[in-house]
Amino acid sequence: MTAPVDAPLLDAPLRPVAGPRGVPLLGSLAAFGRDPLSFMVRLREEFGDFVTWRLGPRRCVLLSHPQHIAELLGAAERDFQPVDIGWAFHQVAGESVAVLRGEQWRRKRAVVQPVVRPHRVRGYAPTMASCTIAHADGWREGQRVDVQEEMAAITQQIVAQTLFGDSPHVQGSGLRQAMATVQREIAAEVRGGVGLFLPDWVRTPARRRVLAACSVIDQAINRFIRERRAQAAEPDGQDMLATLLAQRDEQGQPLSDAELRDEAVTLWIGGQETTATTLVWAWQELSGAPQVRARLTEEVQRVLAGRAPTYEDYDQLPYTRQVVREALRLYPPVWTLCVIARHDTSVGGIPVPAGTMVWASQWSVHRDPRWFTDPQAFRPERFAADAPDPAADHTWFPFGSGPRACFGARFAQVTAVLVLAALAQRFHLEIPPGRVTPRPGFLLQPAAPILATVREVRGG
């Protein structure tokens, strides 16, 4: 059940509170680096909704109240700018919509966003279903599998086909392996912290691996672009690359090859690993909740009756959607947001000096007992349409909110629901008792492999 946000709490005066003193020069860098998830929760629990602290030399603020998080995210692009995610991410994402700011960001977002609008996602749904079913056809009763590897294999195939269609060169291009490499190195850089502060010219072994992988990515995607340019660009093309090629900005200009490459990479990262991670956590929780698993199985078998799920089934599978939403609550792939004040501004009437790093942690807010009763429990019913105490705005924000919210949220959620439905009507992944600890990096992923035994579902 979800605890309502009452008016007196929303109207309570916001008072800045000094957080942990930290140590000279480093501030709370060591505590944050050891366990950032627990650190964010501790700041909220011990100090309140507006906590000041230091990450190295930088002044920071952690916001934990949904009212003030809404104010912060609504002011994105006007008063705040995204924090630089790091050298590795910039190498692979280039000048994509994920990293641009200001007018350049607005121009690029307007061109790229149509790729994942609902009517486009409808066209991708058959690919989501067919890739999932083809992969699951290789599963056998009693087989032992690595859940992360299995979900990643499915979502990689989905993203490859929705991005590049049926290009015969995807399989042998090395693109999947190269993307997996850069995603691992981005996560390691964010998790380690030190790499974020190294000068760009420093070439560590990790950075050399990123550059080598980026070379493979560039060659593969540029080849796909050349192939597609040799064909007629179709405004109603069935894959994302075809749609991107047909898009024009307000001046009637198309995306350059470099821009196409950057957006294709960003769409891959956003559509593949985020969804795979959500599915991994969903399977872990389902394995420990037999009643939830039984209800999910009943719904998908009743609605689908053995056939492949379609886009229209997304609305006909409310409990499956609730399972995905609850997995996103407990384990938000993006576990924290961070922006930097462009100039002297304020949040909740409290001054925020220019240059301050302002944080809002999905992990912490999603597990706040003020908003979610028994927040550690896996209860998909929280998100039922008729729930007596629905989640208040900005108590659940796995895809962010405001101008810089993830525009691929619909694609990610539809993918997760259709993949889960297609698998759950035939199989269950039986995971031994005990939860695997999440490890925060670029995304929130398991700290150790989650191994499961494949079980065929009776009647599936």
Describe the fold and architecture.
There is one protein chain. This protein has helices at 7-11, 29-34, 36-47, 66-74, 87-93, 102-112, 118-136, 147-164, 175-192, 205-229, 240-246, 257-287, 290-304, 313-316, 318-330, 362-366, 409-424; strands spanning 17-18, 50-55, 58-63, 80-82, 144-146, 337-341, 345-347, 350-352, 357-360, 427-430, 438-440, 444-446, 451-456. The protein has 460 residues and is of the alpha+beta class. It has a domain at 1-94 and 335-397: Cytochrome p450, CATH 1.10.630. The strands form four sheets. A six-stranded mixed sheet has the order 1-2-3-9-6-4. Strands 5-13-10 form a three-stranded antiparallel sheet. The longest helix has 31 residues, at 257-287. Belongs to the cytochrome P450 family. Keywords: Heme, Iron, Metal-binding, Monooxygenase, Oxidoreductase. GO terms for molecular function: heme binding; iron ion binding; monooxygenase activity; oxidoreductase activity, acting on paired donors, with incorporation or reduction of molecular oxygen. InterPro entries: Cyt_P450, Cyt_P450_CS, Cyt_P450_E_grp-I, Cyt_P450_sf.
